[in-house]
Amino acid sequence: EIYIKEPIEKEVNPHLLPGELLLCEANTVYKYMQEDGSNRGTCGKLVCTNFKIAFLDDDSASDDNEPQFKNKIVGENDITLQCVDQIYGVYDEKKKLLTGQLRKYPEKLIIYCKDLRVFHFCLRYTKEEEVKRIVSGIVHHSQTPKLLKRLFLFSYASAAPNNTDGRNQTVMFDTLEDWRGELERTKGNVKYKAVTTNEGYRVSEKLPLYFVVPICVSEESILKYEGRGIPIWCWSCHNGAALLKMSAFPKEQDDSTSQMQKVFLDGIYKTISKPPYELLKTDDLSSSLPSLQDIQTAYTRFKQLFLIDNSTEFWATDVKWFSLLESTNWLEITRRVLKKAIEVAECLERQHTNVLLIEESATDLCCVISSLVQVMMDSYSRTKSGFQSLIQKEWVIGGHGFLDRCNHLHKSDKEEAPVFLLLLNCVWQLVQQYPPAFEFTETYLTVLSDSLYVPIFSTFFFNSQHQRDTNTSGESLKTQSGPFRFLTVWDWSVQFDPKAQAFLNNPLYAEKPKPDKSQRKTARFKHQRQLSLPLTQTKSSTKRGFFREETDHLIKNILGKRIGKFINSSDEPPNSFREFYDSWHSKPVDYHGLLLPRIDGPEIKVWAQRYLRWIPEAQLHGGGTIATAAKILDLMEEVQSLQVKMDEEHSQAISRDVHSVPMLRNSARLSSLFPFALLQRQSIKPALPTSTWKDLEDEDDLVKRDDEFLDLSAGMP
Fold first, then answer.
1. pTM (two decimals)
2. Which of 3, 29, 194, 540 could form a disulfide with 179 if both were Cys (CB 3.0 to 4.6 A apart)?
3. pLDDT cut 70: percent of the chain above it
4. Which CATH code, of 3.40.50.1980, 2.30.29.30, 3.30.565.10, 3.30.420.270, is assigned to 22-144?
């Protein structure tokens, strides 16, 4: 039996962007609401355009209930075609993956999204012809391989007016001046130079137009092997040591070619090992970090934990949460990547050694490690404009293959790997461990990860600067010809109005260090450390597992001992690394100096806001970090209002940020996964076997059977 709202009486039409075309539609479609385990749903129209799949109901036409954190491009019931992960049809209560041509059409459609939303549409009451059109249309436009020029990116660029505010403060690194400016900022211009050798892409189509190399490297050397074997500069430390990356030579070659390449590399190494350069340490990331295939496999398993169909499935998986989480290996990969970044930081900071990262193309794990090192060592990269400039430099201009790694064209699953998502996951670990050190919030990182799948921005839809440049020129869809004017994702006004953009900025960001107040800073550091420790609940909860805030003291103790034992036995870090790591953590934190993440045991956490935001059962009513932030913001507002009274002349210039987040005032009604889950919805526990609830509720039973829940050593290498 299906409980529905009254069917739509008035016609609801989709809001189309410039260049967006309606391809197919179906009426009398029911969208299930899964949170209460019943078959409640809303009646509406399901449409497919060349940009998105959208469900339109009577609420779509009214602006009464609009949240203040609203995306202007992608609505709550919109799925961009690039955001579709998998589509299943339900035939006689059995799920079947839908691909290619369909012989039989399903009575129910389930769409799993890359941002982890799950949509259930009932087509039982829809006309047969409309079902055929909408199902085959959705499957075709979201799952079949397509040409680059068929992306909505080009339709939008040719039809949309160019009225955005341009570059804002983000350095785009597409000019020689941008690179020279970065060299000057990091004081790397004494030993390194920006080169124009690749103008016209005469060296390589994979390299950017402009890049930086050691002064001693000649143009002939760069040209010799299409840029391979050349150390390319990423960043310079305050002590002169630099972080470099290199594209490695192919491994399978004949002896004479290999010998020539070896002689060439030896010459390069000797040149940059002499003064004024520091000592050089090389690190082949393909052997010291997991492969891209391992990363893809781990993430595929990991995301399955959050693509929940209903409450029953949620509670069934919650019983085995720790063993399921451990078996994905995603958190362990995160830990290994952070550990590698700390090792590189130690070489640069303490040993004053240049570090050369080597990878086959130097555009995947090199991007992750070099970006992380800069976030940890350079406070400029922890500002919003600095972080965006870093992404431009290392990823967009640096040649990371977003098109292939995100599989935007559905050409090959073999190339797909969530490399950029891995970086954001690692940066989130730092943001949640040291909030005052970052000008941006975890919400910023979450919407940045969502923007990977919004094809109106060129930022994440090309494999290289060459591919972007060669596709920028051309005729637009209308009569006028000329180059495409692509948008950049860094213009946040395209997606969010000023009130919503306020959620991207951290009001508690420690803007400037105050050396004369070292005692106060020490106290704040201790308080921060205490906040990161597990808290003991005063009242026993009926829910077991990760989703009860990870606050059970017993679980934390067992977890810490197990993971600690694993780290100390099978992956013992070198003494110098451990000494550097422990020494730094024993001192007060300088939020504008070096930041080292805590990587032992349970310190590596799940990015709850991104992965749990669509699961009502995982939300805390009036709790979580948002409740703490709301109280602090109230206090800040009170202090600033007192200051206004003391200085009425400047009253209008004070406190822009705090007043721009009015939704935080009533924190008791907010969900812990705010601003994505705005209000807590009550979830009804489904009927489960008695034995399952006994597992969920019995405290004593956990102690006796801790292996079943918490065996984190099982399956570990």
1. 0.84
2. 194
3. 77
4. 2.30.29.30
